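Late entry, evening session. Most of the bench is empty. Finally got around to the prediction I had been postponing all week. Sequence below, unchanged from the version circulated by S.P.
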Amino acid sequence: MTENISPKILMVEDDMIIAADISMQLTKMGYEVVGINTRGEDALNTIENNRPDIILMDIVLTGKMNGIEAARIILKKFQVPLIFLTSNSDDATFQRALTAKPYAFISKPFQKSELERTLKLTLQRIAIEQESAPSPESTDHVSAMDDRLFIRHKDQMVKVLLTEILYAEADRTYCKIHTELQTYLLSVPLRNLESQLPADHFLRVHRSFVVNLKKIDAISEYHEYLIIQSHQVPISRRSKEEVIKRLKMI
């Protein structure tokens, strides 16, 4: 995960009392809960609009699909790391759950320490997978021209003007382009996108962020972040001096 940013977690649990209790525990641990859903169908919509870093998924859900069925769709469509959190700990259920390739399996009731350790191990595994992921040779998802990019988005090549880009963000083996009006998810690593951006106006300020220097509104003097519109973007200490120097040149 990116430093200085709380990992985002989606809770999918049919018991709202249990979900609220776990949500409070997660917040105290320093995580950001991006949603609580009781149905697998609603969870899919949440992921589409606000992709979490980790999903905590109960097997028993309201709605048309159970947690295992929802998890299989999530694996195929989104590849978001998932932890099963369930009271169904019999071997048959466990074997079915394995088909969704979860990162972990926690049986309820559980101790807070067990949840905390499992999340830390999952984040560690995600970080290792990010570091070891091969860089795709193909760059057909991003095509650059003088003042614009054409990016593959929902089966189309969409024009994005460079002046519209606020910043780009790594999202595991994917990356996101944030503009004033929309966020685009690209199925290429951030380094592939960075290679297509003009270096005179775009700069990597953090291992997971590339910013449009012309869009920077402020740089925090005492904290490691900068402001682009209403967004706080982390900036590494070694990048801070370079950003200030580059801003003076623009």
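Two things to note before I forget:
The chain has a mean pLDDT of 88.
Helices lie at 16-29, 40-49, 67-77, 91-98, 112-132, 190-194, 237-249.
Will write this up properly tomorrow.
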